[in-house]
Amino acid sequence: MHLNYLILVVLVLAALWTVMTRSLIRAAIGLAATSAVLTIIMFRLNSPLAAVFELSVCAGLISVLFVSTISLTQPLNKEEVLAHMKERLGRFWVLPFLVIAIGLTLSFIQFKLNLRLPAPEAEKDVRAVLWNLRQLDLLGQIIILITGVFGVVILFRERLKK
Amino acid sequence: MSASAVYLFWIFGIFIVMLFSIGLYCILATFNLIRALIGVEILIKAVTLLIIVAGFLSGHTALTQSLVITMIVIEAVVMTIAVGIVLGIHKQNKSLDVRKIRSLKG
């Protein structure tokens, strides 16, 4: 279990690097790294199928989406980058200290959890749960996917008209 | 809930809160639209981890995995639309800085 704690520290560090790094491309890569580390934790917590989804969709697809968006937008020139760096540093230097303070504060609190969990269920297959018990979720997913497709079509059609 | 499970949940909870605060700070402090989306992604990752840990501790991993899969699909669609909107805004304003987007002001 100690390895889990180490991976959690790496996860937080990857997220911090994602937020604090100067370059947007590096931020997108950092986000993919955060997703990859989260995938390892999910594998270790007996959730392999969700981990595969996280790795392929979040670390893969969404990172590609971000990288292509960044490449399609106009980069800053050198003077703008320098000015932007100073401004960003002024806003973000406090974040690592804030995160460490939150972690230390929470670790020192003696919090008594009194959760009553349901009895563990018999080992079920994810596919059986998804297809038999969570059919409305699947319907929602289909509706959201169709909405997304129409949204993209409308966004790009408007651009073509202009 | 056994004492070891509570301890494990507490340790994971600390890191989840840290991750959530990173995402929230990113959204609040940045002026760049793409960085704001990255902040939203980090927030979603914190929530995903919370659901997975809850499933692991309660023994309902199948149910929580199906919830996480649904969440990932929704996340992908939301990000696609958001990125399309960001590209549209960039085409209009030639900038991703929210301070320079004034077309809706007033």
Topology:
The complex is a heterodimer of chains A (162) and B (106).
Chain A (H helix, E strand, L loop, with lengths): L1 H19 L3 H21 L3 H25 L5 H15 L1 H15 L17 H8 L1 H27 L1
Chain B lengths: L2 H27 L3 H26 L2 H33 L13
Helix pairs in contact in B: 1-2, 2-3
Which regions of chain A are unreliable across 5 or more consecutive residues at pLDDT < 50? none
Helix content of chain B: over 70%
Structural class of chain B: mainly alpha
**Structural class of the secondary elements of chain A?**
mainly alpha
Write structural notes for this entry.
The complex is a heterodimer of chains A (162) and B (106). The longest helix of chain A is centred in the C-terminal third of the chain and has 27 residues, at 135-161. The model of chain A has no long low-confidence stretch (mean pLDDT 85). Chain A starts with a helix and ends with a helix. Chain A has helices at 2-20, 24-44, 48-72, 78-92, 94-108, 126-133, 135-161. Helices cover 80% and strands 0% of the residues of chain A. With 162 residues, chain A is mostly helical. In chain A, helix 1 (2-20) runs antiparallel to helix 2 (24-44), helix 2 packs antiparallel against helix 3 and helix 6 (126-133) packs across helix 7. Chain B has 106 residues and is mostly helical. Chain B has one domain: Helix Hairpins (Orthogonal Bundle), CATH 1.10.287. Chain B has 3 helices and no strands. In chain B, helix 1 (3-29) packs antiparallel against helix 2 and helix 2 runs antiparallel to helix 3 (61-93). The radius of gyration of chain B is 18 Å and the shape is elongated. The relative contact order of chain B is 0.12.
Question: Would you kindly provide a brief summary of this structure?
Answer:
Chain A has 162 residues and is mostly helical. In chain A, 80% of the residues lie in helices and 0% in strands.
